[in-house]
Amino acid sequence: MKLLHVVGARPNFPKLAPVYRAASAANLEQVVLHTGQHYDEQMSGSFFRDLGLPSPDINLEVGSGSHAAQTAAIIQRSEAVLLEQRPDWLVVYGDVNSTMATAIVAAKIGIRVAHVEAGLRSGDRSMPEEINRIITDRLATLLLTPSTDAGETLRAEGEPSEEIVFVGNVMIDTLFASLPRAVASGFAQTIGADGNHVVVTLHRPSNVDDPARLAALVDELQHIAQHRHVFFPAHPRTRARLADSGISVNQGITMMDPIGYHDMLDLVRGAHCVVTDSGGLQEETTALGVPCFTLRPNTERPITITEGTNTLVLDLGKLGGLVRAATRPSSPRRPEGWDGHAGERIVAALIAHG
Ligand code: UD1
């Protein structure tokens, strides 16, 4: 059996690693296609090294652009690759433009699509990721779900039960496998993170593209930084928006370039709490038992609220009080299937449905 994995953006890489490892152990033929959606060393190359992944076999080098331009470039450039490679499965991950674009190409030339992280919905179609999730799930014929609620969503949307397989959360496989190296990195100590610190990441257009919203967020973080050291590894988009809007970040907040997977894990595992709009961090903090405040009106990962440490913050004025009152659960509850073995279950499902 031959798998063609598609990755493109930072959150895809930790999802690929456990599936790649499990498929290697099962002696499957594998090709890794990187679309080049993310291309900076800190957004891509360092992740392949940290995660022990081989360099991609093919890189489409599409780079940045509007949604239409980026999606179109991926569609156009991936078609020849898929026709030449003719895998038994196109395996796509998450909800980025690369996921949806290649699923469209494969579906039209008769290559079956397996979607890792199927069935997540925020219910908010103003998010580009929500469109990507819906289209990818409609086209995939193997829907590999990270949590039981995702399967219920897919069934309610009319997906046939035999196409839905609950495999658990592959991000958490990578988290568990990487913890020893993250701890050994000593990164948090090196930068003076003492356990009383707050880790911030923001990159969603809804938070960073509106200068007034971004200024209000930074203002709130500045208040938090009067009591706790705030570490803010910033996505390139966020850096650019801060510069464009002339918003300055002052004392108590350490702005950083994006950091590698192990360094981030070390910084987050010891934090007082995390303030974010990331999808992956909502899951990682739940698995680590670290309080997480998500600056969004909704989440496609509600299980991190009902069974984890995540809280949606709708009223920005409440963030300071929430951060002050944050406490860790005495023992983190982990949702079913967040056990470090999702990669093996995914490969078993690919073989069983092959
Ligand atoms: C993408 C995903 C988002 C994911 C995020 C993680 C989509 C629709 N969005 O958003 O779901 O949470 O990745 O990071 O696929 N840039 C660089 N260097 C890079 C990559 C991007 O400087 O290596 C800058 C460019 O200015 C670019 C901007 O970031 O225009 C946005 O990149 P893009 O890939 O379009 O979307 P993300 O916001 O990263």
Concise synopsis of the structure shown:
Helix content is 46%, strand content 15%. With 354 residues, it is of the alpha/beta class.
Can you offer a commentary on this structure?
With 354 residues, the protein is of the alpha/beta class. The chain is 46% helix and 15% strand. The strands form two sheets. The protein has a seven-stranded parallel sheet, with helices on both faces. Strands 10-9-8-11-12-13 form a six-stranded parallel sheet, with helices on both faces. Helix 13 (279-288) links the parallel strand 11 and strand 12 (292-294). Helix 1 packs across helix 16 and helix 3 crosses helix 4. The N and C termini lie close together (8 Å). The mean pLDDT is 97. Uridine-diphosphate-N-acetylglucosamine binds next to helix 5 and helix 11. Uridine-diphosphate-N-acetylglucosamine (UD1) binds at residues 9-11, 37-40, 43, 64, 95-97, 128-129, 203, 235-237.
Number of helical segments? 16
Structural class by SSE content: alpha/beta
Q: What's the helical proportion of residues?
A: 40-55%
Rg over alpha carbons = 20 Å
Query: Any low-confidence stretches, pLDDT <50, length ≥5?
Result: none
The rounded distance between the terminal residues' Cα atoms is 8 Å
Associated small molecules: uridine-diphosphate-N-acetylglucosamine
Number of strands: 13
Strand content: 5-15%
Adjacency order of strands in the biggest sheet: 3-2-1-4-5-6-7
- SSE sequence, one letter per element: EHEHEHEHEHEHEHHEHHEHEHEHEHEHH
Q: What's the average pLDDT?
A: 97
Shape descriptor? globular
Give the biggest beta sheet: 7 strands, parallel
